[in-house]
């Protein structure tokens, strides 16, 4: 098919796995209105690019809007998204907030990452309501799934991962993670190839979060063996796929 002709291996993996997961789990339906949460990082940029292509491939119509929540560390750092929206035929909404600095207030008893992601999710849910969206798409990948599993296991004594699809508000909003079965190496490569305008996260806690720490668990468990690492990731992916297919 013409659309896929000039894609490299990584781009095809992102597009193909996303499509297969969408199909297997009945993620979207005709007339769906999908908000894509774009942080400015590689995962959510690739998610946006992939869903734009899937929009042309699937045999039904669905709408897309890009949603960005600026956490308030650098009020102008979303300029690449503004420029990109100007050059691409897609609607977008950029919400300026101060959730980042507020989450880092030394008086808080909870961790800044917890407070920030809680507040961000609330802003995103409010935007979904404002635009009557049926879906909110997040850019989590296979390594995020593994890190979340370890975080839940170690911090909250729960065996829980990240769902490919979850219902909220009595089913009026479906949260989806179309890149959940894709490893980061493919996403990074695809982002470079598509020349997506990724920007640095200015958060002072970036790279120092509990999730980043848990990403190291995969290397600890696999002892540096690539095949073992992939087997662990495959187990997590199979588990979530089974759960999501049962929800269908
Ligand atoms: N500021 C934001 N505005 C909109 N969506 C966001 C924002 N931050 C995170 N998200 C959404 O939540 C997902 C998971 O967040 P996380 O903090 O793990 O992302 P990230 O690693 O900073 O960036 P990315 O996943 O885009 O590479 C993102 O993929 C994106 O879909």
UniProtKB/TrEMBL annotation:
Keywords: ATP-binding, Nucleotide-binding, Transferase. SUPFAM superfamilies: Adenine nucleotide alpha hydrolases-like. ATP binds at residues 37-39, 43, 69, 139, 144. Residues 120-198 form the tRNA(Ile)-lysidine/2-thiocytidine synthase N-terminal domain. It comes from the Bacteria. One of its GO terms (biological process) is tRNA processing. It comes from Desulfonatronospira thiodismutans ASO3-1. The lineage of its organism: Bacteria, Pseudomonadati, Thermodesulfobacteriota, Desulfovibrionia, Desulfovibrionales. This is PP-loop domain protein. It holds the Pfam family ATP_bind_3. One of its GO terms (molecular function) is transferase activity.
